[in-house]
């Protein structure tokens, strides 16, 4: 047979003109993706296509350079490996380079399909596809000599796996076996990054764990998750002793003998389930292939002469490239087929091959690259040739491929070559025959010549009926692709001619509707295996009727499994499955979408309209009701880009929006000449934040007003009303006094600005972060006099704290997710001398969590100078960043700054009281909710303890209060479970101090400890509903007991009692009055207490304040109108009361208490309506802000400006959290004693006023349009768990996510999006992180449905279609005017067009196709598509529920078609 096939020739392309390789290169390795390696000495040159990609030069000698396949994240990846004696470099396609340092010296490296084989002098190792390092050993019946080296290695999932070695002129053949211990492992388990330990082996040890390759990888200037556990094996330990023997070699055969190693080339090839060991003896110029089909001795061998031979690495198994004196040949030793190659190059050596490319070394030592044409480019010819694999055996299949290549070499046309090859094996050629000329019969002479020259003694007479039917099924396959119309004609002509020659009925001939003259002179009668040609459209249409017509699939024809259909006729397979679901009453559109996604259907545009429209109908329904499984493919298919965005993890990554180009030269010049100011923060992030804020407050100018009120850099204005009789000097004194009050108000503006601008900026790390300065000048009207305050008009202490708050407000404007906020950046912003402003800046950074990784030397640089406010800001800031971590390093730092934490006998470090107070607060945060016994004991002792400074002890109420707060933080909400603290009697001790009744003057002044004890009990039992503790702290009912309690303590006790019994707090006035003892309430009402200043009202005022603060904390950020109105009712009363003048001491006492309660009520109102900008609250706060009477003071303005900030918290986008820590932070921040005189600053550390920042959560729902990525106003419906339905307009604040059932968008212009907050999913996780919903504007069939709204919209737009427009052409003549106007409007709207195939553009396009198919059909397939569509529509007549194309339009098509047939 070898001689018979000498004339079979394969075409070859010479790359001489395209690529010229170096003549002195030692080796060439061909790889996938047109990559080739050229190796010369210690240099590897990588070519990508025709260009040099990189040149790698090394100092060490290269043992092996190759490309093999590894599994990277479960994906087979081609990786280049360059092996040296001590290490291996792996070059990934992404450009990463990893180095594997080996614990042994490599003598030999062989690549195989799944990795590398490494051989040392005595041992064999394996790096498999999962990047596992394995030790290869022999079984007990085999032995591996130290002089034996590996020549081939294979590991296959099916078939046989062999390894060959060479020793002393003999070749040993081994079976490759996996260890039983490794059999259970699979790819998925190996892909998981399991942490594996590597144990050294001792003599008695039997337990060991295999090392993964990732354990001994060391990256070259790169890091990777793959290298997370990188380590190097112990060089002194034998590596094999600690590795599992997962691969075992078992000797099965020895072949050949007396071979010279220098003159032998060994490799292996496989074919089906067989493996061949190829031995090329260059000395004898012989080729031997030993064939194995089982693990026994060689079953047979193949022998031929050759100069050189290499495996032909391609999609065709079992082929060799053989070089002989007569040229190049393709040889299949398993089938003993031999085909020549059409090349005359004078080659003497074969270097490498891959995918048909072959590298040759010519006799002049140059390297030439050629391409052997093994398979066609055309999809039609490939599909036809693929059929033969399943229609015939391997021999016939290979013969046919060889005939096709020979014919292609002769004629140059892939399709003609296919026809020639088919005719050569099927048509009987008489001596002299005549035939009718057509495109098929014209090829008969070439077919006859091919048959005669090839001398193939084989006929396809038995197979030709199956070949015809299979080609027919391929033609039906191409009917489903509108881009393959030319294929139908070619196959139709061939099949028409073949069926006539075969003598099949005219039904077959007429089916193909061919127009060429068919030849009837040749006859070779063949069995008709089926009666009529299978018609796919007929079968699909019959599914909608009661008379179903079966369809013959390719798998049924060849009697194979259904999986064959997905290979040979994939589109037919998909359509049949989809239509089976489509007609089933058990499944709906959602199931169809899921199936399309599973079947990898990404577009319906290539389907004919008869198939596409029923599927698009299902997609249209699912587009509006996405009840299918949300995957990226299914959402793309239905055109729901909004839901796809929700599903992705790039919600934070905003897409790039194109900027509008300059339309004229003037605007361009203006942009060039304008001086660009470099901002110190990311303007884009702030612009996005501001855009959302403006959308929230777009109805009026309230946001402009709040930014004006909280503007500290502009000159403040004030109005001074005086009598005309006042002298000029007295007027000046009054003006200076007023200017001093306004300056103090200006110093407190940062308190509100911090809340207003919270988290809105991201700093540029290369620029210093700006902190706005104060403008303390005042413009007095009506005289319009500018007053500059003198240095002594404002105390230095107030100035220091004012600048501290200014620094805090600036750093709180930095977003929590800002990157790169490190100690180095803080030092970059550090002033030459530490000041209070930078201290506040550090404190604010800590509150936002940016001080977690501050280096020790940075801490020392800040604490070393002992600047008090810097120490306060840094200590509390670091503790806030590391809260709850019990960090040991920070504990030491805090202990140094609090004398109580130092051991007894320690030296006095002269730490200021404020810094010691900050140290205690820091301990409370650092040990948050840890119930740490030691810290709890210390803090408990300090509630009644004294603070030491300069070897003197002081009784400091602020210090004791901080101890109580810290103790509450450590045991926050753990009142019912104080594990480890029961024996300390902490609750009893706190209760004794908290309920202390002052009837004498004790030594410890316990009345200064009461506040700390009450707050500690409040936080420990927060939300526990513990009635015992609450009853003990409750306000006494008798008037006599009330006289023994300081009035301001009643405020705290009332607040604490209600916060403990959290669920009983209500929002009505009746509840507030129920908290006031009846005797007090009756007396207050009897005396009309809201209309007169009397110290008897102190009890009422403080209990009222405590009740309202508890209510505000309960309903914080809830926008509860009843709670707001309750607070405002009392606020109005207090504002009227404080407008009265206080003349005597008793009235002044009542006045001061009323002012304090008024400020607290203002804070309470803003807390409830936080971030809403509520006008009723805003009006009252603005009045209080503009009150420049002396009585307001520093503390009053601090409260009012904080309230203003709360009302517009985070630009209307933030909310307060009602968690335990959130409430505790708010209690700390809103402690009801604000500084008024300098001495009162000690009662509550001012830095704690910013603790509200620890209770902030983002709860602003933003709805963005996918096409523009810009926020928009969309109606939102929020359904709560309790059934309550809330209607809002986005952007808006959401209730607590845990209380929400669903969030739904309600806009007729956009697709509805529903977020189920109770269904745990990836979508909900992404939504909770971003609180962003994307909406997608409808461009579907609904726009084309005529309705009054759309008509009025089109009328208002004044759409004018130009007479010269394409849409006025003949093509669009069947389209009605309304559709044309909508087309023009949507096209010109510059919105992102969906590519789902469901837009109005697709609908109009499909309608035009259907109309054209009725009026002038191009082929019979158009009529079959119409029939399929009509049958589908008939099933929908009763419900009239067609969406994509209305039923009325289809009925009009029917009428047109009948009229056409009738005429």
Automatic annotation (TrEMBL):
Organism field: Candida theae
Name recorded for this polypeptide: APC1
GO cellular component: anaphase-promoting complex
Coiled-coil region: none
UniProt GO BP: anaphase-promoting complex-dependent catabolic process; cell division; metaphase/anaphase transition of mitotic cell cycle; protein K11-linked ubiquitination
Highest taxon, organism lineage: Eukaryota
Keywords in alphabetical order: Cell cycle, Cell division, Mitosis
Family the UniProt entry places it in: Belongs to the APC1 family.
Residue ranges of the region described as Disordered: 182-203
Biased composition (Low complexity): 182-192
GO MF annotation terms: molecular adaptor activity
């Amino acid at each position: 047979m070898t001689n018979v096939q000498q004339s079979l020739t394969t075409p070859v392309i010479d790359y001489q003109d395209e690529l010229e390789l170096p003549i002195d290169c030692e080796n060439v390795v061909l790889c996938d993706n047109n990559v080739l390696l050229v190796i010369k000495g210690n240099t590897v040159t990588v070519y990508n296509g025709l260009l040099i990609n990189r040149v790698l030069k090394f100092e060490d000698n290269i043992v092996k350079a190759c490309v093999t396949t590894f599994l990277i994240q479960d994906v087979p990846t081609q990786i280049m490996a360059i092996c040296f004696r001590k290490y291996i470099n792996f070059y990934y396609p992404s450009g990463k380079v990893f180095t594997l340092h080996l614990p042994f010296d490599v003598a030999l490296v062989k690549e195989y399909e799944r990795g590398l084989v490494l051989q040392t002098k005595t041992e064999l190792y394996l790096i498999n596809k999962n990047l596992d390092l394995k030790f290869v050993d022999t079984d007990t019946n085999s032995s591996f000599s130290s002089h034996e080296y590996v020549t081939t290695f294979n590991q296959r999932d099916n078939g046989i796996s062999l390894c060959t070695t060479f020793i002393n002129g003999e070749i040993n053949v081994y079976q490759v076996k996996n260890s039983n211990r490794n059999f259970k492992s699979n790819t998925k388990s190996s892909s998981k990054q399991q942490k594996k330990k590597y144990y050294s082996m001792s003599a008695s040890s039997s337990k060991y764990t295999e090392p993964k390759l990732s354990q001994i990888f060391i990256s070259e200037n790169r890091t990777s998750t793959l290298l997370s556990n990188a380590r190097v094996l112990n060089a002194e330990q034998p590596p094999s002793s600690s590795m599992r023997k997962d691969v075992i070699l078992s000797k099965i055969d020895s072949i050949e003998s007396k071979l010279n190693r220098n003159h032998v080339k060994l490799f292996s090839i496989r074919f089906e389930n067989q493996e061949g060991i190829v031995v090329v003896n260059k000395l004898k110029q012989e080729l031997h292939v030993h064939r194995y089909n089982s693990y026994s001795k060689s079953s047979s061998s193949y022998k031929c002469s050759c100069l050189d031979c290499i495996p032909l690495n391609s999609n065709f198994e079992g082929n060799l490239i053989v070089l002989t004196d007569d040229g190049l040949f393709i040889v299949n030793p398993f089938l003993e087929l031999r085909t020549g190659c059409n090349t005359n190059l004078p080659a003497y050596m074969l270097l490498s091959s891959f995918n048909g490319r072959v590298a040759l070394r010519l006799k002049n030592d140059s390297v030439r690259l050629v391409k052997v044409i093994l398979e066609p480019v055309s999809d039609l010819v490939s599909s036809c040739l693929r059929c033969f694999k399943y229609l015939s055996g391997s021999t016939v299949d290979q013969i046919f491929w060889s005939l096709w290549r020979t014919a292609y070499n002769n004629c140059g046309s892939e399709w003609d070559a296919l026809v020639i090859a088919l005719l050569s094996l099927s048509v009987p050629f008489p001596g002299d025959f005549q035939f009718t000329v057509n495109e098929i019969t014209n090829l008969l002479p070439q077919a006859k010549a091919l048959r005669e020259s090839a001398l193939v003694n084989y006929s396809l007479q038995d197979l030709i009926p199956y070949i015809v039917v299979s080609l027919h099924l391929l033609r039906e396959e191409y009917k489903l692709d509108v881009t393959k119309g030319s294929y139908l004609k070619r196959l139709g002509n061939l099949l028409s001619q073949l069926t006539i020659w075969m003598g099949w009925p005219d039904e077959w001939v007429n089916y193909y509707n061919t127009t060429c003259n068919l030849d009837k002179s040749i006859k070779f009668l063949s069995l008709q295996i089926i009666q009529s040609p299978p018609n796919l459209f007929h079968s699909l249409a019959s599914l909608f009727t009661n008379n179903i017509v079966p369809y013959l699939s390719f798998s049924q024809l060849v009697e194979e499994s259904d999986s064959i259909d997905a290979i040979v006729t994939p589109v037919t397979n998909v359509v049949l499955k989809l239509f089976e679901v489509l007609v089933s009453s058990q499944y709906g559109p959602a199931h169809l979408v899921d199936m399309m996604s599973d079947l990898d259907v990404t577009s319906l545009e290539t389907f004919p309209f008869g198939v596409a429209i029923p599927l698009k109908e299902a997609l249209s329904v699912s587009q509006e009701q996405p009840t299918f499984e949300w995957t990226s493919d299914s959402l793309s298919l239905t055109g729901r880009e909004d839901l796809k965005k929700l599903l992705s993890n790039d919600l934070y990554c905003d897409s790039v929006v194109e900027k509008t180009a300059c339309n004229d030269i003037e605007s361009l010049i203006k942009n060039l000449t304008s001086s660009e100011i470099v901002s110190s923060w990311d303007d884009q992030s702030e612009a996005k934040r501001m855009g959302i804020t403006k959308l929230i407050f777009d109805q009026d100018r309230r946001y402009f007003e709040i930014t004006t009120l909280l503007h500290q850099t502009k000159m403040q204005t004030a109005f001074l009303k005086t009598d005309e009789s006042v002298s000029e000097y007295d007027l000046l004194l009054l003006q200076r006094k007023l200017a001093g009050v306004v300056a103090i108000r200006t110093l407190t503006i940062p308190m509100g600005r911090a809340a207003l601008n919270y988290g809105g900026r991201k700093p540029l790390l290369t620029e210093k972060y700006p902190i706005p300065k104060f403008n303390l000048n005042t413009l007095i009207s009506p005289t319009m006099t500018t007053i500059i305050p003198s240095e002594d008009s404002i105390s230095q202490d107030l100035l220091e704290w004012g600048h501290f708050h200014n620094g805090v407000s600036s750093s709180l404007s930095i977003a929590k997710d800002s990157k790169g906020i490190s100690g180095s950046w803080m030092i970059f912003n550090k002033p030459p001398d530490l000041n209070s402003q930078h201290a506040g800046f550090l404190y604010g950074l800590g509150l936002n969590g940016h001080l977690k990784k501050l280096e020790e030397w940075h801490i020392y640089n800040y604490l070393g100078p002992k600047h008090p406010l810097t120490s306060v800001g840094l200590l509390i800031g670091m503790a806030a960043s590391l809260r709850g971590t019990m960090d040991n390093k920070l504990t030491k730092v805090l202990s140094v700054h609090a004398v109580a934490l130092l051991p007894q006998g320690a030296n006095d470090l002269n730490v200021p009281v404020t810094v010691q107070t900050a140290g205690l607060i820091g301990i409370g945060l650092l040990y948050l909710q840890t119930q740490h016994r030691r810290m709890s004991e210390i803090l408990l002792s300090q509630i009644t303890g004294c603070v030491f400074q300069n070897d003197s002890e002081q009784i400091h109420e602020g210090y004791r209060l901080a101890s109580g707060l810290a103790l509450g933080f450590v045991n926050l909400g753990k009142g019912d479970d104080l594990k480890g603290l029961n024996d300390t009697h902490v609750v009893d001790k706190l209760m004794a101090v908290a309920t202390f009744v002052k009837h004498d003057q004790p030594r410890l002044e316990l009345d200064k400890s009461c506040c700390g004890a009450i707050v500690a009990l409040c936080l420990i039992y927060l939300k526990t509903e513990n009635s015992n503790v609450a009853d003990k702290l409750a306000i006494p009912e008798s008037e006599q007991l009330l006289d023994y309690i300081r009035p301001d303590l009643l405020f705290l006790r009332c607040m604490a009692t209600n916060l403990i019994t959290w669920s009983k707090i209500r929002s009505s006035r009746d509840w507030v009055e129920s908290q006031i003892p009846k005797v007090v309430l009756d007396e207050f009402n009897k005396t009309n207490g809201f209309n007169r200043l009397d110290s008897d009202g102190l009890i009422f005022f403080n209990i009222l304040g405590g009740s309202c603060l508890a209510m505000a904390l309960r309903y914080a950020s809830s926008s509860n109108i009843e709670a707001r109105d309750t607070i405002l009712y009392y606020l109005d009363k207090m504002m009227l009361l404080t407008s009265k003048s206080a003349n005597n001491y008793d009235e002044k006492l009542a006045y001061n208490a009323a002012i304090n309660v008024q400020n607290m009520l203002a804070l309470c109102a803003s807390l409830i309506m936080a971030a809403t900008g509520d006008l009723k609250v805003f009006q009252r706060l603005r009045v209080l802000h503009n009150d420049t009477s002396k009585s307001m003071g520093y503390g009053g303005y601090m409260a009012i400006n904080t309230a203003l900030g709360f009302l517009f918290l985070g630009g209307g986008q933030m909310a307060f959290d009602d968690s335990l820590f959130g409430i505790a932070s708010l209690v700390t921040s809103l402690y009801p004693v604000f500084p008024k005189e300098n001495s009162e600053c000690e009662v509550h550390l001012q830095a704690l006023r910013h603790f509200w920042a620890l209770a902030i959560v983002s709860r602003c729902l933003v709805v963005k349009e996918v096409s523009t990525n810009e926020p928009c106003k969309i109606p939102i419906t929020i359904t709560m768990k309790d059934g309550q339905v809330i209607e809002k307009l986005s952007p808006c604040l959401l209730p607590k996510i845990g209380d929400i059932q669903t969030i739904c968008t309600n806009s007729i212009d956009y697709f509805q999006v529903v977020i189920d907050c109770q269904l745990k999913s990836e979508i909900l996780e992404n939504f909770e992180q971003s609180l962003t919903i994307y909406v997608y504007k409808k461009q579907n069939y609904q726009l084309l449905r005529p309705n009054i709204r759309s008509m009025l919209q089109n009328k208002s737009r004044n759409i004018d279609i130009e007479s010269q427009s394409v849409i006025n052409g003949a093509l669009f003549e069947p389209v009605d005017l309304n559709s044309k106007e909508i087309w023009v409007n949507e096209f010109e709207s510059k919105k992102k067009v969906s590519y789902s195939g469901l837009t109005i553009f697709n609908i109009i396009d499909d309608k035009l196709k259907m109309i054209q198919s009725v009026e002038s059909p191009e082929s019979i397939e158009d009529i079959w598509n119409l029939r399929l569509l009509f049958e589908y529509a008939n099933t929908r007549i009763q419900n009239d529920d067609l969406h994509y194309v209305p039923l009325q339009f289809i009925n009009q098509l029917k009428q047109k078609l009948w009229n056409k047939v009738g005429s």
